[in-house]
Structures are given as structure tokens and as C-alpha cells.
């Protein structure tokens, strides 16, 4: 599933293509025919990303809400659109540009109160200036749930996905299973600052890079990571490979129904970190 930075890039792209223009809407597949008919002819005022949700705000107050989910995809181009191929849920066109949406989890029209309700359900989005990290920490600090699951919970932090959460926990030296209530205020400040920085960089570059300069391939004399998403990471999808920092083999386990990855040396359990109950061998 795309992480928040991808939705921000799409919002900016759609704004550049369509803002201030009268947009014609259709649903070649038919599943959004009614919504497209209501939308068609409206002028796009602005676009907005909130977590993994994309909003197009049109004159008259209605908003188009899209959540791509696992399979949703946009395609766009200049000039005349091609004949629709596959299940095109929504097609937007102007004289200059076209945009197709296929396979989203959500594609619907929302009224202003419904937009507010959607945003009220979502947690603090590190990419938004109006985000409230204190509110997120208030949820985290009283929860026994593993940090890994809390940071993926879109009602706590919005826009984060597996890569950002996995890598931020590595950079904070925290094991994914660490209960939320064991996270100190300093620990949270570090995690939040990292999310703001890493996600902001990803919006600019279009890929997720989470390693410090000293751990880049050229600095370490190692081969770059081979992955279709690109980008250099510490632990995500690196099970059984050596940690870039300490050489220990990266581990993987199922946690909250998702794949979690960590370095057992760089991310000790709270117990071993405090040194109170370390077992003698
Ligand atoms: Zn390590």
C-alpha cells in the first residue's frame, strides 16, 4: 500500500493539472457513474492529502475522496485521453489533461461535514503543518500495544506505512514489540521528528531513504539495495542480512498481522536496555 508521501505527491500533481479548471468526470466502468455525473462540470478548487486519503475540493463544497488501498492506481496524461482500458472507476478530463483511477478502496463524494468526520477519525499526520504530535503521544503513552502497531494505526499517526514505521523504530533503537506506555517523551520527540523528516524527504524525492549518510553504499563500500521501491533502509525486508550498523543478522517476525523487522543488537528489549534483568550466560 502506498505510504503518505505518495498521496502528497499525487495531490500536488492533480492540483497542478486541474486546479482552477472545469473538470469533466465519468466512470467508464460504471461503478461511480452517479458520483461522476454529480461531479462533472465542477471547478477544482484545491487538492489535499490527509494521511493516506486524497481529497479534491470542488467549488460548491463537495469533495472527491479517494483511498487507493492495496490495488488502487492513478494514471494521467496530456491531451486527449486514450480509450479506457480495464476497470476505470473514474476519469477526469479537461482540454489539457486526463486522469484515470482504477481499483481504489474508496472513491466517493463527501459533503463538508463528512470531510470533517473523516479527518476527525485520523491521527496526527507528520506531513501536515496542523498535526498535533501531543495528541498522538497521549494515546501512545497509556497503551500496552506494541509501538509497531500503534504507529501503523491511522487513528494515532496518519500516513505512516510499514517502511516508515519499521525504519523509525530502528533509528530510535526501539524494538517493534516495545509497549507504547514504555515510550518516554524524549523517545516520542525523536520518533516524531524522524517521521517528519523522512516522510518530508520522500515527498520531495519520491522514494523512501532512511539511512544516515555514513551508512550509504558509497560510504560503506557496499552494493546498493536491490528493491523495486528503491531507497536505502536499515532493516525493512532485510531479514537474514547483516545490520549496516553492527553486522548482526536482521530478524523478521509477524506482529499485529504484519511483517516486522529489527536488529536484535541495535534495538534491544527495554529490559536488556535498562540492564536490570540481563541474564548471565
Ligand atoms: Zn544492528
TrEMBL record:
Residues 1-105 form the Formamidopyrimidine-DNA glycosylase catalytic domain. Keywords: DNA damage, DNA repair, DNA-binding, Glycosidase, Hydrolase, Lyase, Metal-binding, Multifunctional enzyme, Zinc, Zinc-finger. Its cofactor is Zn(2+). SMART domains: Fapy_DNA_glyco (SM00898), H2TH (SM01232). Pfam families: Fapy_DNA_glyco, H2TH, zf-FPG_IleRS. It catalyses: 2'-deoxyribonucleotide-(2'-deoxyribose 5'-phosphate)-2'-deoxyribonucleotide-DNA = a 3'-end 2'-deoxyribonucleotide-(2,3-dehydro-2,3-deoxyribose 5'-phosphate)-DNA + a 5'-end 5'-phospho-2'-deoxyribonucleoside-DNA + H(+). The keyword Oxidoreductase does not apply. InterPro entries: DNA_glyclase_Znf_dom_DNA_BS, FPG_cat, FPG_N, H2TH_FPG, Ribosomal_uS13-like_H2TH, Znf_DNA_glyclase/AP_lyase, Znf_FPG/IleRS. Belongs to the FPG family. PANTHER family: ENDONUCLEASE 8, ENDONUCLEASE 8 1. This is DNA-(apurinic or apyrimidinic site) lyase.
Amino acid at each position: 500500500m502506498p505510504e503518505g508521501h505518495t498521496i502528497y505527491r499525487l495531490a500536488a500533481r492533480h492540483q497542478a493539472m486541474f486546479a482552477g479548471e472545469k473538470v469533466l468526470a465519468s466512470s467508464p466502468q460504471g461503478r461511480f457513474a452517479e458520483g461522476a455525473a454529480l461531479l462533472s462540470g465542477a471547478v477544482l478548487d484545491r487538492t489535499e492529502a490527509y494521511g493516506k486519503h486524497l481529497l479534491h475540493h470542488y467549488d460548491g463544497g463537495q469533495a472527491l475522496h479517494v483511498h487507493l488501498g492495496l490495488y488502487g492506481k492513478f494514471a494521467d496524461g496530456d491531451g486527449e485521453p486514450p480509450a479506457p482500458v480495464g476497470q476505470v472507476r473514474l476519469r477526469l478530463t479537461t482540454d489539457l489533461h486526463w486522469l484515470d483511477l482504477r481499483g481504489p478502496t474508496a472513491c466517493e463524494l463527501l459533503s463538508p461535514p463528512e470531510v470533517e468526520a473523516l479527518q476527525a477519525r485520523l491521527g496526527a499526520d507528520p506531513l501536515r503543518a496542523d498535526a498535533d504530535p501531543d495528541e498522538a503521544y497521549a494515546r501512545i503513552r497509556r497503551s500496552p500495544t506494541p509501538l509497531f502497531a500503534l504507529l501503523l494505526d491511522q487513528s494515532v499517526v496518519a500516513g505512516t506505512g510499514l517502511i516508515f514505521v519499521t525504519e523509525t523504530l530502528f533509528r530510535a533503537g526501539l524494538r517493534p514489540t516495545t509497549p507504547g506506555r514504555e515510550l518516554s517523551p524524549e523517545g516520542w520527540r525523536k520518533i516524531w521528528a524522524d517521521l517528519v523528516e523522512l516522510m518530508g524527504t520522500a515527498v520531495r524525492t519520491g522514494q523512501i531513504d532512511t539511512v544516515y549518510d555514513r551508512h550509504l553504499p558509497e560510504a560503506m563500500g557496499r552494493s546498493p539495495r536491490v528493491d523495486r521501491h528503491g531507497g536505502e533502509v536499515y532493516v525493512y525486508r532485510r531479514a537474514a542480512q547483516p545490520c549496516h550498523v553492527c553486522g548482526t543478522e536482521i530478524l523478521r517476525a509477524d506482529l499485529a498481522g504484519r511483517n516486522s523487522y529489527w536488529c536484535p543488537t541495535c534495538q534491544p528489549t527495554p529490559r536488556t536496555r535498562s540492564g536490570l534483568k540481563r541474564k548471565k550466560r
